[in-house]
Amino acid sequence: MEIGPFIPLTSDYGFKATFGNEGNTLFLRTALQALIKSAVPIREVQLEKNAFEALTLDSRSGIFDLACTDEAGSHFIVEMQLGHAPHFVQRMKFYGLHKFNTVVERGRFDYASLPRIYCIAFLEKSVLPTANYHTVANLRDEQGEPIDEQMTFILVELAKFDKPVAAISTDLDKLLYTMKKLHEVTEPTQYPPFWNEEWLERAIEELNTRRMTPEERFQFARYTAINAEAVNAEKAKVLAVKSEAVRLALKKGLPVDLIAEINGVSEELVRDIQANLSN
Q1: H or E stretch at 90
Q2: Taking Cα atoms as reference points, which of 218, 187, 182 lies closest to residue 1?
Q3: Are 59 and 183 found together in one domain?
């Protein structure tokens, strides 16, 4: 397998090796603190075993949902989305409210002592109409005054982040720059100074293909193969559905070019299906 010097942090393997590193949580703790804009360091996190895992079509890898709890009892859900997801905010609400219901069911149903819940998502593509690349949302009134901060939604749109190294000073910007640029680097001379900070240095080491053990290389290859197989299977399902829609449209006598446009397929495919129907 031909791969670059560094595995993308946004890939399934890269995300799990850094954010999901149970052996050393320094990167995860520092990243979470930066994402929620907290001045108080997160000293401990406990990863949950029942995190959701899934694959999406139209992504280089997939989604990996990570769930954890810090020493104060705050809950974090972190999700990576590489494919286009125009309704992703609805998915965030689903995960956040699912966690809320789980917390209530497990507790003593005391609304006064509910823990904080942070639902965090990284999106490769943009979904919000604003220019902000880091959006923090709570329940607020029409004047923008907070009503409740027990549940916080944080959306990071990587496509909107384009700061040069010279303009980067916060841990949040260091994190996003690393997520976007690490896999493009080929020489140490391209390293920005902040990659020597311990939390980022340890994460980068996990993604350095030149330092991977045979077992780690196998795991990376396994993730890549599983994702490719799942995405191909999903594409086959989508094609089957579209082909059936094309057949129905042909039986209705619609023109080939219109059928292709409506179903998002090539005219060649429509003509192939038309020929099969004729036979």
Answers
A1: helix 88-106
A2: 218
A3: yes
Range of the domain at 273: 239-278
Same domain for 208 and 71? yes
Q: Which of 203, 219, 171, 185 lies closest to 9, judged by CA?
A: 203
| Beta strands at 45-47 and 53-54: parallel, antiparallel or unpaired | unpaired
Q: What is the pTM of this model?
A: 0.74
pLDDT in tens, the chain (279 residues): 456 688 899 988 889 899 999 999 999 999 999 999 999 999 999 998 755 444 443 443 334 478 999 999 999 999 988 877 888 899 899 989 988 988 887 666 677 788 999 999 999 999 999 999 999 999 999 998 989 999 999 999 999 999 999 999 999 999 999 999 999 988 877 899 999 999 999 999 999 887 777 777 677 767 666 666 666 766 778 788 899 999 999 998 999 999 999 888 899 999 999 988 887
Q: Does a structural domain hold residue 6?
A: no
